[in-house]
Every structure is written in C-alpha cells, then in structure tokens.
Amino acid sequence: MWWLADPQDLHRVEDRLSTLYVERCHVDRAENAVVLVNKERTVRVPAALVATILLGPGTRITHGAVRLLADSGTALCWVGERGVRLYATGLGPSRGSELLMRQAFLVTRTTERLGVARRMYRMRFGDEDVSQATMRQLRGREGARVKKIYREQAARTGVRWDGRVYRPGDPYGAGDDVNRLLSAGHACLYGICHAAIVGIGASPALGFVHTGSATSFVLDIADLYKAEYTIPLAFDLIARGEKDERDIRTAFRDRVADGRLMGRIIRDVKDLLVQDGSEVTDTDDHHLWDEIDGQVPGGINWAGEAADRWNDDLFIGVTGPQLSEQEVPW
Questions:
Q1: 98-273 is classed in which CATH architecture?
Q2: Thinking of the domain 7-89, which architecture would CATH place it in?
Q3: Which 3 state secondary structure label does DSSP give 296?
C-alpha cells in the first residue's frame, strides 16, 4: 500500500507526467503498468510516472488497476469530456501533514498571512518593493497590473477589449468571446494548480489572498500564471477566429504538455509556505498531539502509566431506562 511504501520508491510529483486523459477505453492492470484498451490499440502506462489520470466518458476500470494506481500514489479523477467537469477524485501521492500544518499556521496568523500574500504579489510585480504594503494597496496595484496586461494583449493582437466580465455560477455565459475563452482557460489552469496543491499535501481551501472557498488557495496560485499562460492564449485564439471554449482547452493542453508548469507550481507553493528553505518531510509519522510535548509517538498503548491510578471512584456510569424491543416485522 502506498502509505507503507518508502518515499524513495515513488516518483516525486514534479517528476511525473501531470495528467493523462483517457476516454472510451477499458483500463486494466498488467504487473506494474495500467493497460488502456480500445478498439484500435492497447497502450501500457507505468503507473508511478503519472500524477493524475483523468477518466472521461466511456471508460471502465478494474479493481486491480485502481489498487495499482493507489499503491503508486497516482490520483484518479472522473471527469466529463476533455476534463470539462470534475465529478469525483481519489487520493494523490502525499502522505505527510507537515506542509498542511505549516499552511494552517501561516493562514491563521495575521502577520504571517500578510507576509505570504506580499510574497505572492512580489512574484508578479518583479523588483517592486511591497514589503510594507497593506492588502488594500496590494489589491490596487494588482488591479492596475491586470488592466495593463489586458490592454497590452488587445493592442498586440488587435482584439477589441471592453473589460473583464464574469458572472459567478455561469462563467461561460457572460461577456463577449474573449471573456468566455478567458473563463474557460482559467478553469484549465485551476485544475492543474489544484492537482499540484493536493499532490504535495497542501490544502486547496486555505488561501492567503482569496478566502471563503474550498478552492481559495487554488485561486491564489493560479493568479501567478494567468498573465503568462491563459490571458495571451485567449487573445491569440480570438485573433485567429477560434472562439469555442474547446479551442482554448486544447490549446492550453498543448501549451503545458511539456510538464514544466506542474513542477513550477510545486516549487512556488513550497517557496511560499516554507520560506526559510527548510526541507518538508512527506512521511507518515503517525504521532499523537500533546499539549505539553507537542507530539508523542502513536501506535503505543498509553494506558499503562494511568491504569495504576484509576479506581472505581474515578468512573461515573450513566444508563438510560430499559426499553422493550419491538418485534421485527420480518
């Protein structure tokens, strides 16, 4: 089982192929590979070399294949066609809680949370000094930066730009063609960021700039890459007359096919949460929390030292009235 395997036995998330999309196939297992079978061909895929397998419409998967993928720390996602919708997902390769505990510590303390937010904005602003900026000032600078990016992309491509339009709950139905492609492209970017965050054991919900959503941290991290990936891509497609949402999904897929974005996201997340450069262990230590010592070993019967001090006076038993059992009708 993956949680019992030595971490060195599994490929690191940043070294894996980020996603493998499968549709209209039978997915089975052959030794340490998953086998994809359709009417045309059979493909063998080493399970431990893929971070996430996306199962699209028309797929069947065997118990053996699921167990192999679980042992390999490969996440499974059941999605709509071309990954448009996410219906369900399984565990990724992370096994430790140290990074998550670090994230929770930072996000629940105002000074530390502001420090992480400043580092996020500094990654976008380049050499601009934001060490003393408040969140209100940071939001203002970010708004001005994004507006400038939209104007520059419109001027570069000759695409008319009247401002960003987004309608919560109906992101693809609001605005003009370029706005719809932006929403669809951002959704693709969110998916990769989500997979990377979950894959290294961080929480997608504990955001530093965004808050109140199950994907707040996903939105935080995705904002670091929109200016480089999805925004220019949407304008390029509109300039070529490609206006369907599928156009940007496939174009974005091709844009990140080399896998570099996944590794970059993971490095950036770790740099943001562990600024001092210390190593984050990803081992299942199985400790118990203690208010004095911090943590104590698990898997130990701790009753021994206390059992000698217990007696009948230390226990209070509470029982309810006797109830007559009704006869079962069947």
A1: Up-down Bundle (1.20)
A2: Ribosomal Protein L15; Chain: K; domain 2 (3.100)
A3: strand
